[in-house]
Amino acid sequence: MNTVKAYAAASAKSPLASTTIKRREPGEHDVQIEILFCGICHSDLHQVRNEWESAMPTQYPCVPGHEIVGRVTKVGSAVHKFKSGDIAGVGCLVDSDRTCENCKEGLEQFCPHITLTYNGPDKQLGGVTYGGYSESIVVDERFVLRVPKNLNPAGVAPLLCAGITTYSPLRHWGVKEGKKVGIVGLGGLGHMAVKFAHALGSHVVVFTTSPNKKRRCSEARCG
Q: Which candidate, 85, 191, 90, 74, places its Cα nearest to that of 133?
């Protein structure tokens, strides 16, 4: 077991502060990652402030962060997809029950017993999982993504939540050249949706109540 530095909230009203947390030694199927970048998702703020108390109460101390990009530093003996030095990413999930029908179909995100990257049950160490606002993380290789070395790792981090949140429905509905896509709002998710929809060749229209965002829409070539 290793002790690493992290930023955690001690309560719903306290700011994030420096602390230390425990990380397990990599098992045979695990990947150990030195965290280089971690995006800031508004879900992190909701969780830290315990604003989802009725559905997902926060357990403190809480180390948020689920848009993780880093460098692989160690792999387990049974890991074949990653090696030391690879750039890798970790999103919202770090485990599932692996036995339900959703897991068997490769749809772990619909598993009724998923383990979230933070504030989820830590099956190995007990207590709760800790997220990416830390020096390193150890994750089963099934929940680790390969990041091409030609990409900017800082730019990749938001793709692990905001990116997939918008990319997934665009692909599901077959967005391509000749189709029209309407995007409501030009916030973090809206920006991602505009970029993806435009890259897929569609005609993009943004609905916004902020006149000063019109220029940004024009730069992204949307209507």
A: 90
The set of residues, in sequence order, having a beta carbon less than 8 Å from that of 112 and lying 6+ positions away, is 97, 100, 102
Q: What is the pLDDT of residue 188?
A: 86
Tell whether the torsion through CA atoms of 186, 108, 69 and 120 is positive or negative: positive
Q: How many residues does the chain have?
A: 223
Angstrom distance (rounded) from CA 53 to CA 47? 8
Taking the C-alpha atoms of residue 108 and residue 126, their distance in angstroms, rounded to an integer, is 21
Instruction: Give the DSSP letter string of the chain.
Output: -EEEEEEEBSSTTSPPEEEEEEEPPP-TTEEEEEEEEE---HHHHHHHTTTTTTTS---SSB-----EEEEEEEE-TT--S--TT-EEEE-SEEE--S-SHHHHTT-GGG-TT-EESSSSB-TTTSSB---SSBSEEEEEGGG-EE--TTS-HHHHGGGGTHHHHHHHHHHHTT--TT-EEEEE--SHHHHHHHHHHHHTT-EEEEE-S-GGGHHHHHHTT--
Cα–Cα distance list, 103 to 65, 95, 100 (Å): 24, 10, 5
Average pLDDT, the chain: 93
Query: Where is pLDDT greater, at 209 or 110?
Result: 110
In one letter, which amino acid is 153? P
Q: What is the pLDDT of residues 12-30, one digit of tens each?
A: 999 999 999 999 999 999 9
For residue 133, what pLDDT band results from cuts at 50, 70 and 90?
Answer: very high
